[in-house]
Write a structure and sequence with these properties.
about 600 residues, mainly beta, 6-stranded antiparallel β-sheet, 6-stranded mixed β-sheet, 9 helices, 39 strands, about 10% helix, binds fe (ii) ion
Length: about 600
């Protein structure tokens, strides 16, 4: 693989073109579960103070019988556990026993639609029955393949629909299916909640009611009132009206500082009409998602304590973002750091057939995709009618980002790059992680992530915000997943600890290992070789409908309303489609011993 200079016609966001990319088809192939813990072979030294479990979630099964998924995000959730104790590591994995997984397995074909896959009618049905099945209701998937999240001390796996599953982190067994909509009026929640130090959890989710689509900020209390508690006590802190109610933005996550939730309304839009009618039209849900570069990105600030939405809106150019790095308040400004792309169409390229390409075709997929880079935005918190217009309000000498009041309640922001030109050679950075336990919502110096000289991460990076220099771990032919920072027991400095990452190889059978790096130097301390293959993938879902005639009428009425632009309505299909995005990435969680 050799870097070549970009052509003059190549836009800034396609800074590095590559040739000769290695095929990674085996990384997006189905795997067998390992339901009982197995030993690993440790090379080097894994510090004996690391005692706990690394949990990972992602798609692990891409076909049932003769049917197969189209999009990487559609695969069935596979849960992985690396248990580390006294320098030794065991590994186990289980498929999430979701309704989607069980129904697909029972029929030995895909009977539930997912983000990029529309389930085909039962081949045993006659023509008329097949026709009617196009009017069946699409239900949100419970294939929670995105990540592990924590509410009230319990572990759940989540996607972006209204369904989560509580799981036992010790044996990865599926315990209980939980429905957000049974507790609050939302049709889903992201798989990236934020946590206050006391355990209070914040999240976001859309609702689709008679007032149209709304973005909702959610707060879940830290304590259980009963041992059977799940989401009891959850509240909608506030709701934000989309710029276009029938085309709300897709969001994968949000940012949080000490006092504010920051919602990023980006130009990745959901065409609710297309989503609602996808089965009728015989199209996958993913076709209702589109990038609209004519629209600016808007930051909405919500006071965490009062739920009040700031009347001041912070605009910037069209960007897409999946993961934020950190946000903190300093001297009357909110510093917002996140990974951004200047193009939001990448989601459509993560088809399984693209990921399994080779040669020039694979290079072409990569070279037409926009890379993601870390950027800082500086948002002035005290904007009033007295605030002068048309001048840079950023008085923080630590950042070159600008923010200008352009009219009443509108500030336009220009970012500062949190990197030098050398990051272009590593394909940008995604899957950002920080020392979350001590530095989330606080000023910080370091973040970690994956470099992307391939469609999946091919290096691990540690960025130092002091001088924007970074350290790299890279081994040719190996592909590391999201890095997780684990602080050492006597940690004093921000980077006292280790980085853990699951590393895969597409060419070596059973070439998987858990990598342990010194977080200060990014040098390898040790690795645990796992004698099984682990995929790099994701999941999907759909459930067959109920009373056909009723749903046919329902769909047609909704279609009429939407065409007249008079209303939008509740559609689980919307949230079903959202789940797919998250699957872009496999997520890891570190659990300290009890
Ligand atoms: Fe994510």
């Amino acid at each position: 693989m050799s870097p070549v200079k970009p052509k003059s016609s190549v836009k800034e966001h396609f800074p590095t073109r590559l040739r000769g990319l290695e095929t990674i088809a085996s990384l997006v192939s189905s795997a067998q579960e390992t339901p009982e813990p197995i030993s690993t072979e440790v090379q080097g030294i894994i510090p004996s103070w690391i005692n706990g479990r690394l949990l990972r979630n992602g798609p692990g099964k891409f076909e049932f019988g003769n049917t197969h998924y189209n999009h990487w995000f559609d695969g069935m959730a596979m849960l992985h556990q690396f248990k580390m104790e006294k320098g030794q590591v065991t590994y186990m994995s289980r498929f999430l026993q979701s309704d989607a997984y069980r129904k697909n397995s029972e029929k030995d074909r895909i009977v539930m639609s997912e983000f990029g896959t529309l389930a085909m009618p039962d081949p045993c049905k006659n023509f008329f029955q097949n026709f009617l099945s196009r009017f069946e209701k699409i239900e949100a998937t419970d294939n929670a393949s995105v990540g592990f999240v924590k509410y009230k001390g319990d572990y759940y796996v989540s996607t972006e629909t209204n369904f989560m599953h509580r799981v036992n982190p010790e044996n990865l067994e599926t315990v209980e299916k939980v429905d957000w909509s049974m507790f609050i009026a939302v049709n889903g929640a992201t798989a990236h909640p934020h946590y206050d130090p006391d355990g209070t959890t914040y999240n976001m989710g859309n609702s689709y009611g008679h007032k149209g689509a709304l973005y909702n900020i959610i707060r879940v209390p830290p304590e259980k009132t009963d041992t059977k508690d799940t989401l009891q006590g959850a509240k909608v802190l506030c709701s934000i009206v989309p710029a276009n109610k029938s085309h709300p933005s897709y969001y994968h996550s949000f940012a949080m500082s000490e006092n504010y939730v920051v919602f990023i309304e980006q130009p990745i839009k959901m065409d609710l009409l297309k989503i609602v009618t996808c089965r009728l039209r015989g199209k996958a849900l993913s076709e209702g998602i589109y990038w609209d570069p004519k629209q600016e990105t808007v930051f909405h600030l919500v006071d965490k304590h009062t739920g009040k939405v700031s009347p001041v809106k912070y605009h910037t150019k069209p960007i897409s973002t999946f993961h934020q790095i950190n946000a903190f308040e300093e001297d009357g400004f909110l510093m917002l750091d996140m990974c951004c792309s200047d193009d939001g169409q990448a989601i459509n390229n993560y088809l399984i057939q693209n990921l399994r390409k080779s040669g020039d075709a694979l290079d072409e997929v990569y070279n037409t995709m926009c890379r993601s880079f870390p950027r800082r935005f500086v948002l002035p918190l005290n904007v009033t009618s007295e605030t002068p217009s048309d001048q840079n309000l950023n008085t923080q000498t630590s950042s070159k980002a600008t923010c200008v009041k352009v009219c009443k309640d509108k500030v336009f922001c220009q970012h500062e790059d949190l990197h030098g030109d050398d990051l272009y050679e590593y394909g940008g950075l995604e899957f950002p992680q920080i020392n979350y336990g001590k530095y989330n919502t606080q000023p910080y110096r370091y973040f970690y992530g994956c470099g992307f000289r391939h469609l999946v991460g091919d290096s691990l990076l540690k960025m130092d915000l002091k001088d924007k220099m970074f350290k790299v771990w890279h081994q040719k032919g190996f592909y590391p997943s999201e890095p997780v920072f684990v602080p050492s027991p006597e940690a004093v400095e921000e980077d006292d600890g280790v980085i853990l990452s699951v590393v895969l190889s597409p060419t070596q059978d059973k070439g998987t290992f858990l990598l342990v790096l010194d977080a200060k130097t990014l040098e390898e301390l040790g690795r645990a070789n796992v004698p099984v293959n682990i995929p790099y993938g994701f999941h999907v879902y759909t459930e067959k409908g109920h009373t056909l005639q009723i749903h046919a009428i329902f769909i047609l009425i909704c279609y009429k309303f939407l065409c007249s632009q008079k209303t939008v309505f509740i559609v689980n299909a919307v949230t079903a489609c959202l789940s797919t995005f998250e699957n872009l990435f496999c997520f890891t969680t570190w659990i300290h011993p009890q």
